[in-house]
Specification:
heterodimer, A: 314 residues, alpha/beta, Rossmann fold, 2 domains, 7-stranded mixed beta sheet, 12 strands, B: 290 residues, 5-stranded parallel beta sheet, 11 helices, 11% strand, globular, disordered N terminus
Chain lengths: 314, 290
């Protein structure tokens, strides 16, 4: 997990750019602007930055009030607190109200590391994807993060963007063009499709390399938008490759795997395996150690591909 | 002025450029009409919250028919004063006021809580013209009002933001997060009104969850506190005038009210927090409100 570029840093920087372009952009934080990186925006636009203190529920409803009067609020804190701490505020003040609030949660998943289970959001995507009308994005690297934040600012409606704590290797180059609701084919292959989000995209590409040497050709899809999910890409993948593996840094329940399974089972039933967190909390430890312990590495993805390929051949 | 005709004519489209859109002399008559609407529509719906709707009638009447600048023909007019109903179960009161102002036909009040109605069981901004915020999950309105006020400040608009809370609602921790934030951000064009009818679903506030010393709590959170009789138009009007003069801090008007006010058998009865009157009870109530 060393090296790479910080998606949080990319978030902080793009917010400043957006702030310069549009005076309606406002930013809220809950005493974590040093970690969420909204500090850059606050430094340049103090009159448009509102630190709400350690009061996430209040922050979300204040953001809704700002949006109701035409502002474009970006509200940030850790993914355990957003939506966990303020789910009802997100539900009522923002989503049911169809207000133009952008929730950007950082420190998602177990790669938070040493802070332990209280700070490892492993249920947030299940919660947030349950809300009708919410758009949910999990970027795979810093480049996609900046573009997703820009897209959220440009598109009317509530957004949830989940970022992690560690720096990540870049899986994209600057000429990449993110589109809300569209899966991205990272690599072509005909034997199995691996659908991944967030930090698991780089791992999926690494696994595909390894499998290629064994003669197994993987299609790798990045699924940055979890909601509305790209059903067409999923159905084509199932049809073309006859087997699907999902990979995510989230509980199996209600995450990418569940969503893909729902579509595959309805439209094109094929064998599936899910690389995800099983029904348990993790613990403190170094991010790389935890990802290994809980089965979220390139090796785990490769193993799942071999298994699903066997099932496909029956 | 006749019982039903006068107000909608004041709201005619030709009048929308005026500073003050309503200046109704006989607020008492309006209040009585709103009470009749509340009792009738909840009775017809067969469910709803009469007690806390009736207790806040004078507050809402004074705001919508005397103090607030708003344009019923243009509910999203950016210059409007905002009224945010945080105690969303008092939706029938808000609907009655909005209908009488001309936001939608008075006849529509009969559709309350029915399938496909614009008048949902709790206030819902996605359904009803003139409703600023979706509420019903208590405790969120004051925060929303702070956000609205901050947006007004950034837009250099001079509108007032009014938010109506229940006293039982102040059990919610978020109310106090918002109270702290409002004082911290020095939003002085924000006025919170607490409908202090002293009752909540399970009984008296002091038995369910004691709020006292209530005024001192707001004061300690940095608010200017005014306590008045919430059924006395003159005292309420005076309180709103004083609130406008307060600079550098938000104001809360703690309005002492009677739950179920105006209908003898509902007054001070917790059971009528969330129970509809029967057809016979509606008849008796309407007689009392003639």
């Amino acid at each position: 997990m060393s090296g790479g570029v910080s998606p949080r840093e990319a978030y902080g920087k793009i917010l400043v750019e957006l702030g310069r372009e549009n005076s309606d952009i406002v930013v809220l934080d809950a005493d974590l602007c040093q970690s969420t990186m909204t500090k850059y925006f606050a430094a340049e636009f103090p009159e448009r930055a509102f630190d709400c203190g350690i009061a996430e529920q209040n922050m979300v409803s204040i953001a809704a009030g700002l949006a109701a009067s035409g502002k474009i609020p970006f509200a940030s804190t850790f993914a355990v607190f957003l939506p966990g701490r303020c789910f009802d505020q997100v539900r009522m003040s923002v989503v049911q109200s169809r207000l133009n609030v952008k929730l950007v949660a950082t420190h998602g998943g177990i790669s938070v590391g040493e802070d332990g289970t209280s700070h490892q959001a492993i249920e947030d995507l299940s919660l947030i994807c349950s809300l009708p009308g919410m758009t949910v994005i999990v970027p795979a690297d810093a480049i996609e993060t900046a573009q997703a934040v820009r897209a959220a600012a440009a598109q009317e409606g509530p957004f949830y963007i989940r970022l992690g704590r560690p720096k990540l290797p870049l899986v994209y180059t600057e000429d990449y063009c993110f589109e809300v609701g569209k899966a991205v084919t990272m690599r072509e292959g005909g034997d199995v499709t691996v659908i991944a989000v967030g930090i698991m995209v780089a791992a999926a590409l690494e696994a595909a390399e390894e499998l290629g040497r064994e003669g197994i050709n993987c299609r790798v899809l990045n699924m940055p938008t979890l909601k509305p999910i790209d059903e067409e890409a999923i159905i084509s993948a199932a049809a073309d490759t006859g087997a699907v593996v999902t990979a995510e840094e989230h509980l199996e329940h209600g995450g990418l795997g569940s969503m893909v399974a729902r579509i595959v089972s309805r439209h094109r039933p094929v064998p599936m395996e899910m690389v995800s967190l099983k029904d348990a909390y993790a613990m403190s430890g170094k991010p790389a150690e935890l990802l290994q312990r809980y089965g979220l590495t390139a090796k785990d993805i490769a193993q799942a591909v071999r298994k699903v390929k066997k099932r496909k051949q029956g | 002025m006749s019982e039903s005709a006068g107000l909608s004519s004041t709201a005619s489209a030709g009048n929308v450029e005026a500073e003050v859109f309503y200046s109704v002399e006989d607020l008492g008559a309006v209040a009585r009409r709103l009470r009749r609407h509340i009792v009738t529509m909840i009775g017809e719906a067969g469910s709803g919250h009469p007690g806390g709707s009736l207790s806040a009638v004078e507050i809402v009447t004074l705001l919508y028919f005397k103090l607030m600048r708003h344009k019923p023909a243009d509910p999203q007019w950016p210059g409007r004063d905002r009224f945010i109903l945080s105690k969303g179960h008092a939706a029938p009161l808000l609907y009655a006021a909005l209908a009488e102002c001309g936001y939608f036909p008075v006849d529509e009040l009969h559709t309350l809580r029915k399938v496909d109605s614009r008048l949902q069981g709790h206030a819902d901004r996605t359904h009803t013209p003139g409703v600023e915020m979706s509420s019903g999950s208590l405790g969120q309105g004051l925060s929303f009002a702070v956000g609205t006020t901050l947006a007004g400040r950034l837009n250099a608009e001079s509108h007032q933001v009014y938010v109506l809370l229940g006293d039982g609602e102040c059990d919610e921790g978020q109310v106090w997060e918002a109270a702290m934030a409002a004082a911290h951000f020095k939003v002085d064009n924000l006025v919170a009104i607490v409908d202090n009818n002293r009752l909540q679903i399970d009984g008296w506030n002091c038995d369910v969850m004691n709020l006292e010393p209530f005024g001192k709590k707001w004061q300690a959170f940095g608010w200017h506190v005014i306590e008045v009789d919430g059924h006395d138009f003159a005292m309420l009007a005076d309180a709103f005038t004083k609130a406008k003069l307060v600079k550098g801090q938000p104001t809360v008007i703690i309005a002492r009210t009677v739950k179920g006010r105006g209908v003898s058998f509902m007054e001070n009865k917790a059971i009528f927090h969330g129970k509809a009157p029967s057809a016979a009870e509606v008849e008796i109530a309407l007689k009392e409100l003639e």
